[in-house]
Amino acid sequence: MKTMHFCWGVIIPLGLLLSGAIRPTASMATGAWIQLINGKDMSGWKASENKETWSVTPEGYLQAVGKRSHLFYEGEHLKSGFKNFEFEAQVRTFKLANSGIYFHTKYQESGWPGQGIEIQVNNSHIGEGDYIELKRMGSLYGVRNVYKTFAQDDEWMTVKARVDNDRVQIWVNGIKTVDYVQSERKMGGIKKLSTGTFCLQGHDPNSKMQYRSFKVRRLSDEASSNLAPLTYAPWQDSLLKYQGQQFAFIDLNPNTNFSPEDLAKYTYTTGINVALLKSPKATKALAEAKKLPLFTGIKVNVETLASLKANTADYVIGESTGLESARALLNSQKIKVWSDKGQDLNTDQADALLDLAKQNNVAIEIDNISKSPSIAVLRKAKAKGCKFTFAGLVPADKLTQSLYVVEAIKGAKLSYKDQYVPKW
After folding, report:
1. Helix (H, G, I), strand (E, B), or coil: what is residue 324?
2. pTM
3. Domains of the chain, first to last
C-alpha cells in the first residue's frame, strides 16, 4: 500500500452497538458466489505497469513478484461494477511482503490506484527508505488502521470483507479487524464508498504474494447499516493532521474493568487500537482476546513484579507510585511501558529516570486525562531517544475531555517513529 492520509470516521455510542442497530437490514438479499480466479490463467484480470510482475504458478495461483503493478478485475462479472458485496480471498504472503486488495476502484495504466479504498495485506513489511510501515493485515488503509498482526507469512490466510452502502467490515482468519461506518461529513483525504472493481497489488520487488481464490457475491444496492453516524469533531479535526503523518493511536493502558467485547467495539467505532490488560494472576483471561482485534498486556507494579511469569502477552506495563518503585520497574528488564502514577517525572529526578527508561528500552506513557508527563519532560525524553505510548483514550467520552495527546505531539515535536508499537 502507498502512504496516504489517515483520518477519523465515526464514533458510535455503545448502546447502539449493543442494541443491534448496525445489523444488516432484511433488504440485503445476496446473489450467488462467483469465483474470479480460474486456477489456469489471468482471464478477466488486467495488469497495469510492469505487467511481468504478475504470473500464474503451476498450482494455478495468481502471483506477484517484481516492480509495482496492479491487477484489476475486468472480466464478464464486472458489469456496471460492484457496489455492495461480500468477498472472500485466499492469500499467502512471504517474508517482508506488502500487498493490498482495492475495491470500488477502476483500471489505470500506472501509479497507485487513484480511486477506491484498500484493504491492507501485510504481515511483516517494514517500509522502504526512510518510511516505516506500521499498518498491518486487515486494515482499511488510512481509514481504520490495525497495528497488530493476526496472521502469519508463508501460510494461507482468509481475508473477508462485506461492504453495504455506508459500512465496511473486514475479517482475517475469522477475526473481525474492522467495522467502519462512513460519516456523512466529508473527512479530509478519506474517499467515499462508491462502486467499481477489485484490484490486487504487486507492491515492490521484495514483496512476493500469492492469491489462490477470490470469490464475490453481490448484495442489494439498497443495503444499509440503518445507523446515523455521530462524530466527535474536536478529536477528528485535531488528529486528522497527525494521523496523516502516520501516528498510530493505541491505548495500551485502558481500564481493566472493560470486557473484551466492549474494547473491541471501541476499536471498531473510534479507530483507536486498544488492549486487553490483566494482572499477573489473571493472565489466563487474556485468551478471551483470541478472536478479537486487541493487543494483550500484563500490568504490574513493584509488588506484583515478582509474580510475572513467562511472557504470555504482547507487552508488559509497569505502574509506579513513587521514586523507588519507578527505579525498580525501570531496572527490572521485564517491562516495555512505564506509567508514572507517582508523578516522579515532575521532580528533579526526571532526567535520571528518563535515562533509565532509554537504557532499558522502556516506553514512556503519555496520559491524555492526567496530562502527564509535562511537555517539558516529553521534550527531554524525546532528546534522549525515548519511545512513547498513549493512555487515557478509553472510553469514548474521554475524547471530549482532553486533547492533551495532540498538544504533547505538537509541543514535544514527536513523530510516528517515536512511538512504541508492541511486537512491531
Report:
1. helix
2. 0.90
3. 14-218 (2.60.120.560), 247-418 (3.20.20.140)
